[in-house]
Amino acid sequence: MSLKFFAFLAAILPLTAASVAVKPETVGMSEERLSRIHETIQRHIEARNISGAVTLVARKGRIAHFEAHGLMDIETKRAMTKDTMFRIFSMSKPVAGVAIMTLLEQGKVRLNDPVSKFIPELKGMKVAVAEERAAGTPASEPLRYYTVPSAREMTIQDLLTHVSGLASGPASATETRKLFDGLANTTLANLIPKYGITPLDFQPGSRWSYSALAGFDTLGRVVEVASGSTFDQFLKANLFAPLGMKTTAFHPGDDNWPRVASAYHRVDGTLQKVANPNRLQSKTYFSGAGGLVSTTEDYAQFAMMLAAGGQWNGKRLLSPKTVEWMASAFVPDTMQGRQPGRAYGLSVQVVTDPIRAGYRMSAGSFGWDGAYGTHFWVDPKEKLVGIVMIQTDNPNRQLDRDFENAVMQALVE
Question: Which of 2, 61, 247, 409 has the highest CB neighbour count under 10 A?
Answer without folding.
Answer: 61
